[in-house]
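Page 42, continued from yesterday. The earlier attempt failed because a stray header line got pasted into the input along with the sequence. Redoing it now with the clean sequence only.
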Amino acid sequence: MTKWSKFPEFPNQSTNFRKVVFGGSLGRRTRRQEEESMNVVVRTLNALALIVEAQQGVSLTVASEKLGYPLATMHRILKVLTDEQFIRRDPVSLEYFPGRRLQRMSSLARRETLAATAEINVRALSEKFNETVMLTQLIDGRAVCVALAESRRPLHLSVSVGQAVPLHAAASARVLYSDFDDDSVRSLLKGHPFVQLMPKTPSSVDDVIAHLENIRSFGYDVCDNEFDFDIWAAAAPIRDASGAIVAGITLTTPQERSQPEQLRHQIVGAVVAAAEDISVAIGGAPSRLSPSGASA
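This time it went through. Structure tokens are written below.
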């Protein structure tokens, strides 16, 4: 058991230091002082939450009105948050937006939550169908497998963590950039080798864009003998709080194990549900799209 030592004395500690750090004589703060200190913390957090949740600039006046704080109090709070780079003030509109430190904290939190949540969902989806399930992310223009749960059956797609999959030929890749406009898709695939891996492999940017339109309409993509021989796959995008696609989850299976058609619909529904569970866990909203409207 860990033993905790007595709170250490500070050598040569000045009275002023004790007052600044501890708000008065060490250990002798009144209940009123404690309440006032907590009130400042709560007000600061409320101001921070207001700016984060607004998804647009917030002026000093608007912040004061919405939170019910005096202008002078609101100004002091916003100045501290700005000085500490949790928020930033636009020099033209004079409105406040999330700052560098807040964005970094948010990014780190999403990344850790994504990794933890995805691991649970990837494993659960794999165990449900006893098939290989992987998580992919777009990293430096490459679709990379970042998490994997392999089927226990002898016959399954061979893939490993860290492996990149073809941007044009894999559903696990296409869902990652399905929100890109056509020009951005062409830019991403510029110089990309459209290797004809299978007879049904997309052979041009236009073929890929047609796939992307289906993803936007139905919320998922399928790969039917496009990436590897006799392999069928279903993939769905994972979105963060801003609605941006940050990853994709994919289940792959040999063709014969994806029959009958009803089973494919069950797999698609489970893949989309897993993607939505992960999205919600990292702050995203559930999709309003229904996978029942598309054909595999």
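Notes: The longest strand covers residues 245-254.
Reminder to self: strip header lines before submitting.
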